[in-house]
User: Fold this.
Amino acid sequence: MHLIVGLGNPGDKYRNNRHNIGFLAVDAIARRHGFPAFREKYQGLISEGTIDGERVLLLKPQTFMNSSGDSVQKVAAFYKLGPADISVLYDEIDLAPGKTRVKVGGSAGGHNGIRSIDPQIGTNYRRVRLGVGHPGHKDLVMPHVLGDFSKAEQQAWLVPLLDAIAANAALIVKGDDNGLMNKLAIAVQGDGAERTQRPDTADPTRKKAPAQSHIRQARPAGPQAKVPDTGPMADMLKKLFGKKD
Assistant:
């Protein structure tokens, strides 16, 4: 059995927040693989189904982000699951929008949900970090992660990313981290994501840029893509986010 946890905050006011991308990812997996309706248990919403013949639990803790570990620990204890049987999907401001990183173990990196989970179950579980971008200054981080995804973000990279996570959920269960990252990168196709190659190594003749602060500078947003009102993409957006702008 494998436990896939999506992190977020409960309640309609937070539903489309960047901080709730973990909830959105788990919902996409549930729809894709025909999981039954979530039920309230273990201080969370839980559903059990199968992915590629493997028993899988999907969990959305309802404790609010900072106490996510309480729910995860209860599920892990009841089903006798160790860290190797658990994968956690959550937002990452230090990754460009649409970019993903998957690894086992590591630190909380300032994420309060992960900080709550680590002392409860240990650190050697799989972390699927889903980039939502940095607002440019530490004072803007809270309103950024608690802000809703724009329609342009949804179309440019969020819907393709969530669809790819759901389609490739078996790779999470199997622990194929590189395979999962490759599939997700292909699905997003670079929309909204920065290249991983550093400018000073991409071209050996290019002069090295002056050192900058570790706090990223905000960049002016480009023109927003027009979001379709009809068609398959519009239907997908309505299922994920409802009709709210």
